[in-house]
Amino acid sequence: MRLLLLINSKWQKLSSEIVEVMEGANGMSSQGLADVDLKMLRVFATVVDCGGYAAAQIRLNLSAPSISGYMSALERRLGMRLCRRGRGGFELTEKGAEVYRESQRLFAAIDDFTAVTGALRGRLLGNLKVGMIDCVISDPATVIHHAIRRFHGRRNEVHLELVVDRPQELQRAVLDGRLDLAFGFFPDPVDGLESRPLHDETLEFYCGHLHPLFPQEKVSPDDLQAHRVVARGYWRREDIARVGAVRHAATVYHMEAQALLILSGRYLGYLPCHYAAAWVDAGEMRSLLPEQLRYHSTFALITRRNPRPSLVLSTFLTDVEAAMNELAQPGKDRMRAAE
């Protein structure tokens, strides 16, 4: 009975959002929403997410003329101009921005409704979009793959999308609904997001074995000043501030690029200890001034603030918590399947 009430509630929500999205359209709301309308809306939303037609071609596997055709057809169907294209690039109109926001609510409602009806048949249905920062696979404390293993130990036909991006982009994507949740380091809180701390990660300042400082037995903070430093673009000020007034000579947005420049022997930079461990053990990297330059970051899970998350999301969050509890118990088989 409870599930039937929930389904009825989801259906009412879905119906009202369809009406809101189509409000003001020339005939769409009165004729109803057809499959082709959803297709056009999804193409439109993908173009917006990608920032224009060029990047959307790869995501959609469609040619530019095909995308243009979908966009023109949607504008005719709605009876309004949604975007402008020109020398200044792709830009949404005010109405286009509103349609995009409402389309995201519509897609979320459809996914949620699909998940609830699937639960009636004893399985989870829908989509789960998960974001994360890079280089977590070498972290022994990460719960992501353990949670995924548990989640797919259940009867489900959920399509999983896993996205790797920088922290600020992950926050934006969760906030606007492009992602359901994200794992990473998020030092700057964002209104509308909830953060759940998972564990701490240690980072140290490294040089490669080809760097002049590598064989130097004693290194002082002053010794660092003459050498190039690579910093992450999203935490550049913080990284440079920890080391002092050094030569900030390169910017990267992924840890793999950071490690590559350090291994070149021309740059110094921060890396997570678990990620650098293989190169340290092989004698190809060395931590400099660990007692002074080491710091810790809190690895967290973020979701959009929502009193009623989707069934798929709430189930996955339950599996994340169960995986954390299992990892915290020494002697347990960490990779056992969820029952």
Automatic annotation (TrEMBL):
InterPro entries: LysR_HTH_N, LysR_subst-bd, WH-like_DNA-bd_sf, WH_DNA-bd_sf. Signal peptide: none annotated. Residues 36-93 form the HTH lysR-type domain. It comes from Oceanibacterium hippocampi. It holds the Pfam family HTH_1. GO terms for molecular function: DNA-binding transcription factor activity; transcription cis-regulatory region binding. Belongs to the LysR transcriptional regulatory family. Coiled coil: none annotated. This is HTH-type transcriptional regulator CatM. Keywords: DNA-binding, Transcription, Transcription regulation. PROSITE patterns: HTH_LYSR. SUPFAM superfamilies: Periplasmic binding protein-like II, Winged helix' DNA-binding domain.
